[in-house]
Structures
1.
Amino acid sequence: NAGVMQNPRHLVRRRGQEARLRCSPMKGHSHVYWYRQLPEEGLKFMVYLQKENIIDESGMPKERFSAEFPKEGPSILRIQQVVRGDSAAYFCASSPFRETEAFFGQGTRLTVV
Amino acid sequence: SQQGEEDPQALSIQEGENATMNCSYKTSINNLQWYRQNSGRGLVHLILIRSNEREKHSGRLRVTLDTSKKSSSLLITASRAADTASYFCATDVAQGAQKLVFGQGTRLTINP
């Protein structure tokens, strides 16, 4: 059973471009979470999804950011018109049920130049 | 101060010694989880302790939870160089949705 898979591991985008981050949860996990980590800081919750549904997006910026978890395929975190302040590590986590431990992927490190 | 604040921010000890890290939080929680993060890597889940539990063990790890003081501690016994990492506590605070609130972390260095 492979762990949570995120790709790409590193992503460089110019200001104004779009960034697409992918997350494949562990097999059998239907709960997906996205977190953002700025350098030297802890992780900040962004969004919680179940298959085809956004359950809680209270940590997502209101503009430019969107997330989906389709019936088939990975969860996608999409950042449109990236700015330098979007540079961070973005982590995805999954769990089989709501109140169990979340397993994290290795993260995608986004650099906006 | 933030929910899930770790103390100390940095800790440096000799190999073989015990390392204790503390975490304080502000609101009621469903559970509290400890994670380890090696530099530039993802998070590794260590222990989950539920709000109705007081202590949990896993190998060389011991976690305590005091809900009256809204605090938790992580003890690593007989530390090894490989334990060098940042350690984060995360509280699950939401009803109906797991939303972990992370602290800033404790940077632990084990000196050989």
2.
Amino acid sequence: DTGVSQDPRHKITKRGQNVTFRCDPISEHNRLYWYRQTLGQGPEFLTYFQNEAQLEKSRLLSDRFSAERPKGSFSTLEIQRTEQGDSAMYLCASSSTTQGAALHFGNGTRLTVT
Amino acid sequence: EDKVVQSPLSLVVHEGDTVTLNCSYEVTNFRSLLWYKQEKKAPTFLFMLTSSGIEKKSGRLSSILDKKELFSILNITATQTGDSAIYLCAGIWQYGNKLVFGAGTILRVKS
């Protein structure tokens, strides 16, 4: 068990640029989640995959956000035309259907939009 | 809307003290409640509670769920400086697989 891996650890970008983050879940986990966390708040759900299927997406997620998990393994989260309000920690988590709801989180990607 | 509320928002104690952290949740179609500890980065899993009144323990930490009053508590006895962290609780509801988190309680243990 090598844990959930996220890349990059930090990203600084200028407003209006596109950014893409990658998440590698624990290898035997079929569920993958993206969360966003800002200072003083708990993680906020963005989207969820089971295998390669995106089964749920937050209503709060604008059209500038898109996530993929093409082969049911790693996932990418892309933010287009970044805004300063997108600055946050983006956390990825995974779980397996046999383990139920206990998510295993990665260390996150901290995004700063200037 | 699914909602989780934690209290207090922050807490400062001295080593050796016992602390109780609170978490309340909305009832509709509720399934389970989870506690996580977050230090610098990734939240790490502590407990998952599904049945009311059954205490779960791990060392100095314990937690219990009250489905009648719609809350859970996390107790930490004989606190140590290494317990300083943000403690998050999260609910999961029927017919869904996402966790809904509270804002967290920031615990600082002073030596």
